[in-house]
Amino acid sequence: MRLRTITLVYSIMVIAVICVGMFLYKNDAHVDVNMTDIHKSSVEIQKEYLSGKDVSAIEKEYDCSVIFETSRSYEEELWQAIGNGSIVLDLRDDSEMIIGKMIFSEQEAAYSRDRIRLWIVVAVVCGTVILMGYVLLIYAGQNIVKPFAKMQKFAGEVAKGNLDFKLPMIKNNYFGAFTESFDILREELKKAREQEYLANQSKKELVAELSHDIKTPLSTISANCELISVTSSDAAVLKRVDVISGKTQTIEQLVDNLFHATLEELTVLKVEPVEESTTVITDMIDNMSSYGEIEVANEIPGCLVWMDKLRFNQVIDNILYNSYKYAGTAIQITYEDKADGIVIRIADSGPGVSDEELPLITEKFFRGKNSSGKQGSGLGLFLAKNFMGEMRGDMTCYNRDGFVVELFLRKV
């Protein structure tokens, strides 16, 4: 609950208590009157009046007032006395005829004085309680609520990543050591972030340097391929050289991507599908015949599909390489024409993948039990599925007399 709400509730409660107290005080107010003493006084006044004593002396002696019916202000004084709560008794003559009234007003005056004194005491006590309550609320707000509010703001800024937001220290505050610990934590987080940034920078620089070093032998390979293409007339040699040259270009493009992505960041590699003819897929398959025997069951349907040639070439390369590495059998490729796209079914005749591992083979860094002793990073099928999704297509894997991968390319 906020301090303002607490203060408002406290004020309402204090006002309510005061109002209830005044109401009860007003309704329960009464005067305790000793009627025995007043009766004795009235008897004595009656005797002394009949004995001829002066009325003024009687009034002074018994602290009362005597009014006679013959007085012009008799009615006015009588009703005023009754309204003030005074005690009024009859004054009689020798024949027991009422000739006036004896008014005892001391009890009413004492009662009024008591009420005033009581009201002053109540007002002082309530004022003191209210003042002490507000002083306590102000103290709690400055020394407890306000520091917590600052820490709440500090936590919010740190959560946003603003590690330059300092938490101010307050001397002689109960939470001084607490806030200091939080600020030390902020400093450590800031240092850790700076170290992480420097580490990432070093990693990227290392990747850039390795990419540059890799390009050097690739350039040499490309130059030799061009030289062989010019000097050789052997058709088989020229075909192999074309495959090597194509692979070299693919590697060069992949190396360029390494300038902007590390191994853990490969999923952010750009995939830019454009309209491509399915005929380019035939060339990709032909260029990968070096992996082993590839049997194409039928011709690919001619149409336009959404494809990123570089990424799809990687997909085909990864799948064929995995089949060659783990199955070691001939690879069958079948094309199927559908209304919204084409399906490329790539199957081998190996043992397939176990049922418990099949749902996991496209997960990042996952490698099956049969991968022992074989090089790999567990990224091939993961990247293939990711690239197919980015090209508006799909990839599914299952077992059917071997391991089967289906690639779906959506038609334009």
Give an overview of the whole structure.
With 412 residues, the chain is α+β, with helices and mostly antiparallel strands. 56% of the residues lie in helices and 14% in strands. The protein is built from ten helices and ten strands. A five-stranded mixed β-sheet has the order 5-7-8-10-9. A hairpin with a 3-residue loop joins strand 7 (331-337) and strand 8. Helix 6 runs antiparallel to helix 7 (235-257) and helix 9 runs antiparallel to helix 10 (380-390). The longest helix has 56 residues, at 176-231.
Q: Characterize the main sheet.
A: 5 strands, mixed
N-to-C terminal Cα separation, in Å? 60 Å
Mean pLDDT: 79
Proportion of residues in extended strands: 5-15%
**Numbering strands along the chain, what is their spatial order in the largest sheet?**
5-7-8-10-9
Tally the beta strands: 10
Rg over CA atoms, rounded to whole Å, is 53 Å
Q: Could you spell the SSE succession in H and E letters?
A: HHHEHEEHHHEHEEHEEHEE
Helix and strand composition category? alpha+beta
Unreliable stretches covering 5 or more consecutive residues: none
Helix content: 55-70%
The geometry reads as rod-shaped
Number of alpha- plus pi-helical segments: 10
